[in-house]
Amino acid sequence: MKHLFSSGEAMHKKNVRELSEGVFEGEYLEYDKVDLDTKFFCSGVINNKKVRLSFTLSELGYEDVSGRLNFGILMQSDILLAEWKDYELLDLEI
Length: 94
Description:
single chain; 94 residues; alpha+beta; 3 helices
């Protein structure tokens, strides 16, 4: 399921993350559930090129995200800005 970043998140640049490849600006996240093994997908741009990336949360990142989920206050930026275990760039537009 696609989950858009809110206008407030975009306005305050909470949909932006620095990666080794450049500054990533997310448009939306895709996921069906939130658990430690969930692979999240995010579409956006790096250096004006469309890209899709996948990532999984670290244990610490998952603890932070699941706490906010349990309280019903989870935002897409909480997931994007949480600590990741790993990530991979997919579908890079060249």
